[in-house]
Amino acid sequence: MFLRTLSLAGEKIRGLIQRHPDFYPMYTRQGKWKHQGEAWTHWCDGFLPGMMWILHQRTPFGSEENRWWREQAIRYSKPLEPRKLDRNVHDLGFIFISTYYRWHQLTQDPTLKAVLVEAGKTMALRFKEKGAYLRSFVSDDSLFIDIMMNVGIIFYAARETGDARLMDVAMRHTLTSRRVLVRGDGSTAHEGLFDLKTGEFLRQSTHQGYRGDSCWSRGLAWALYGFGTCYHYTRDPRFLQTAQACADFFILHTPADGVAPWDYDAPEESRKQVDTSASAIAASGLLRLARLTPDPVKGAYYEAVARHVLTSLCAKYAAFDDPEWEGILKGGVYHIHKGLGVNESVMWGEHFFVEALDTALGPVGQ
Ligand code: GLY
């Protein structure tokens, strides 16, 4: 099932490249990638080439298909390089870990590492000393849970350069996010707001969730995955504990098929709208957490849950019998309040679905 879905992904991405070459879409409208819909923020360009790198590694080494995916991956990754200096978004981890990190893993080319380090340094410039957090793209007083997926590039840059200041920024941001965005039951808030004069944390809020005190499912999935990444870089047990708390909330509150509602606290009728992208991110995060968790029983449990979630996504939401649908995974949500990408394919959902399928399948050749 996982292999069949990965080959569906390959077909859909090939179709996208042929139909709209060099286009980096964000979400579909009625299943079509190209439309005039608003973007809100410019954060997704790494996800399409990220999948190309995965597909490159999945195909037999030296085959024509293998070379073709590599050419496409390079072609779509290279134009992103100037974004290493982009100070307008908090998403440089999304953009570069999905692309240049994978590219560097394959080649060990130091010029690729230099791009990653530069992107990490740029991310660190978002740090607000008062409050101790990396500011979101919306304003200086705003911290987003999504940034937990991007602070990893600062940990990476700190490790590769030995720069203690970068390590300090990444640690303090992660601890602040843990303190103000993750609740005692493992649920998460989307946004935290601070007093800029004093650095005092004021309240939880949201943009894409139901409300400030609710648990927006994609935010929860970003936290589950992101705190796991921070544990990977630091081995700080507080980050493992937080990733596990978020994982346990996901497992306890998601319906039995493993497909999350768009927000766990939205009214019942509204909760019928799932966000498959949240479940795809959670599945990939759970597979990583399974490998990071020292307790083998707990690790096996996370692995089993992740496989169950993926099986449901493949069976119920992969666009197998819909050749007109240009995406891979149906049922994603971008921004419900703005009416953007609701019940559609979304590029991050595609990316983390493909990443999770790839991880679940294990190393090529096994
Ligand atoms: N802004 C990132 C997200 O939609 O999850």
Outline of this structure?
With 366 residues, the protein is mostly helical.
* Tally of DSSP helical segments: 13
Note the beta-strand portion: 5-15%
Bound molecules: glycine
Taking pLDDT < 50 over at least 5 consecutive residues as the criterion, the unreliable ranges are: none
Strand order of the largest sheet: 3-4-5
Principal-axes geometry comes out as: globular
Q: Mean pLDDT, nearest integer? A: 97
How many structural domains does the protein architecture include?
A: 1
Might you state the CATH topology name?
Glycosyltransferase
Distance between the termini: 16 Å
SSE pattern, N- to C-terminal? HHHHHEEEHHEEHHHHHEEH
**Which percent range fits the helix content?**
40-55%
CATH architectural designation: Alpha/alpha barrel
What is the gyration radius calculated from CA atoms?
Answer: 19 Å
Largest sheet: 3 strands, antiparallel
Specify the structural class.
mainly alpha
Instruction: Give the strand tally.
Output: 7
Task: Give the secondary structure arrangement, pairings included.
Layout: H1 2-19, H2 47-58, H3 64-77, H4 92-107, H5 110-124, E1 127-128, E2 133-134, E3 142-144, H6 152-161, H7 164-181, E4 191-194, E5 201-205, H8 217-234, H9 237-253, H10 268-271, H11 276-292, H12 296-317, E6 332-335, E7 340-344, H13 347-361
Antiparallel strand pairs: 1-2, 3-4, 4-5, 6-7
Helix pairs in contact: 1-13, 2-3, 2-4, 2-13, 4-5, 5-6, 6-7, 6-8, 8-9, 8-11, 9-11, 11-12, 11-13
